[in-house]
Amino acid sequence: MKKAIYEEYGIKVQDLRKIGKFDSFRVHQTDFLIVPITNIDEEEMYELYQLSEFMVEKREPNIARIVVTKKNNLFFEKDKAKYALVKYAAFTQGRYQQIGRNLARFHQKARTYPYQLSKTQRIGQWKYLWERRLDQLESFWSGKIHSQPFTQFEKMFIESFPYYLGLAENGIQYLVDTELDEEPQPIDSGTICHHRFHPTTWGSAQGVKLPTDWVFDHASRDIAEYLRHLFFERQEELQENGFRFLDDYDRTTPLSAFTWRLIYSRLLFPIHYFECVENYYLSSDNDKPIFEAKLKEILTASDQYELFLKSYSNMLSMRKKRIVLPSLEWLSS
Questions:
Q1: Is 246 in contact with 223 (CB distance < 8 Å)?
Q2: Domains in the chain, ordered, with CATH?
Q3: How far apart are alpha carbons 274 and 137 in whole angstroms?
Q4: Which of 34, 114, 134, 192 is the most exposed place for a label (fewest CB within 10 A)?
Q5: Rounded to an integer, what distance in angstroms lies between the CA atom of residue 31 and that of residue 195?
Q6: How would you classify the pairing of strands 191-194 and 214-217?
Q7: Is the model's pTM score more than 0.90?
Q8: pLDDT band at residue 166 under the 50/70/90 scheme
Q9: Residues near 291 by Cβ (< 8 Å), separated by ≥ 6?
């Protein structure tokens, strides 16, 4: 790896160390991370580069900048894998205490990005992406029903899928109704979001904002995924921190009725379940027990998750603004 970096960038690396899940090194007070980018193609990399340079211009703190190779490429290849080299300034702890407010400000700046995007663009595509994902998993499930014997995981998957199919269809319908009923406001225009935003996205070991984590989408994506993560990983914090996070965001950038409803439709769509099943079948035999345990946890928490969905519509800041969310009959009964 040291040799590859010298050849590609002309940078002499003394020693590599691990920071979080990345290899890292330091040269003249500048820190670098080596980020695997297997699933990102050249065009998408270029868009992410443009977005990150834009955010640096906007003086957003802790943006990791993609370093260009000597041949003007945004990544390099080694042993048939692709990597990007990013540089960042050392991070001061405690900067992200008010994550709701900081995320709202980040979204505000990114909303002013003036150029057209295609590869990183997800805004307006949820319905199509969710339906495609649902169809794929449903046909996979139909095939599994007839193939015996079942592993423990497959038994859980086969029995639970009809419930999550119903939940997914509710999420899609809620999204469609929202788009028909509500008028989007300026806050509903596209911004930089993360594939999955959670409490450690910015507060982790390296504490940097990595462009390789980004997509261009509606802000509700980050808000919903943050709340979902709290539900599954830090449930004891959900009532206090989750709702404080929402209030901090809403005070910084007031959320429209359209946004409140999009957050809800995204929470209804069980991405956590889909990802767990998909990851199980894509993982090596060594990792399969991790996803089996994860699925067990998701299924055990399904009643709690319904209660969480119910409690969302009683959010204080929504009531203050007299925003009423259409309720789902089966959930409110």
A1: yes
A2: 2-90 (3.30.200.20), 126-332 (3.90.1200.10)
A3: 8
A4: 114
A5: 24
A6: antiparallel
A7: yes
A8: very high
A9: 153, 276, 277, 279, 280, 283
